[in-house]
Amino acid sequence: MPKTLHVVSLGDSLAYGAGDESGEGIAGRLDDELRAHGITTVRTVNLGVNGAQTADVLSRLKQDRVRKSIASADAIILSVGANDLFRSPHSREEIMRAPEAVAERILGRIETIVAEIHAINPRARVLMLGGYNPVPRHEWAALINQYLGVWDQLLTARFADDPRVAIVKMYDIVTPQRLSRYDSFHPGSEAYREAARRIAAMLVAELRVA
């Protein structure tokens, strides 16, 4: 197993670490978690941007600085798609009418993002964050939870044949009690810590097999 690991966090506010009361997010916490597994040198680059949608990530993948970071990475943590699903009233209304059609369209754009990452760096692992419900007390919370379950299934199925991609479950980590004290929407410190722990364990397990 390698003693040095370079990890890039790419995508939206979850990749950035919004809501973490410590300011560390997943990227900032991976150092300690990976060192606990015996990886002595960890370098993390945070390329997350609050509010980013799939189109924004595709645009960023054309930037030299972003491409250089990805080209040298051993793993990329990717969080994208949630803002496409829920940010605009139009998309929310469309989800109610044709949820799977909306998901398939967004998954197609995520597939394009992953293909571009593979083209930049064919050897890097891509760990994609699954969905969680940021509004557990909303009147439609049960429906949102149901839809997010479908989303995770479709996301997993879409990349089932790609050995370089793994889905990181988030719904059991970001519980109502672990939402941020700042905005009660993004994960709080404890949730980010658990996510970093899960990601570190997945990375180390894959590295041992590789």
Characterize the structure shown.
By secondary structure, this protein is an alpha/beta fold. It has one domain: SGNH hydrolase (Rossmann fold). 50% of the residues lie in helices and 14% in strands. It has 9 helices and 5 strands. It has a 5-stranded parallel sheet, sandwiched between helices. The longest helix is centred in the middle third of the chain and has 22 residues, at 99-120. It starts with a strand and ends with a helix. The model has no long low-confidence stretch (mean pLDDT 91).
| Count of individual helical segments | 9
Number of strands: 5
Provide mean pLDDT, rounded.
91
CATH architecture: 3-Layer(aba) Sandwich
Widest sheet: strand ordering = 2-1-3-4-5
Structural class: alpha/beta
Strand content of the residues, in percent?
Answer: 5-15%
Q: Class, according to the CATH hierarchy?
A: Alpha Beta
Radius of gyration, CA atoms, in whole angstroms: 16 Å
Question: Looking at CATH, which topology would you report?
Answer: Rossmann fold
- Overall, the morphology is globular
Query: What is the CATH superfamily classification?
Result: SGNH hydrolase
Low-confidence spans: none
In which range does the helix fraction lie?
40-55%
What's the number of structural domains?
1
N-to-C order of helices and strands: EHHEHHEHHHEHEH
N/C terminus separation:
8 Å
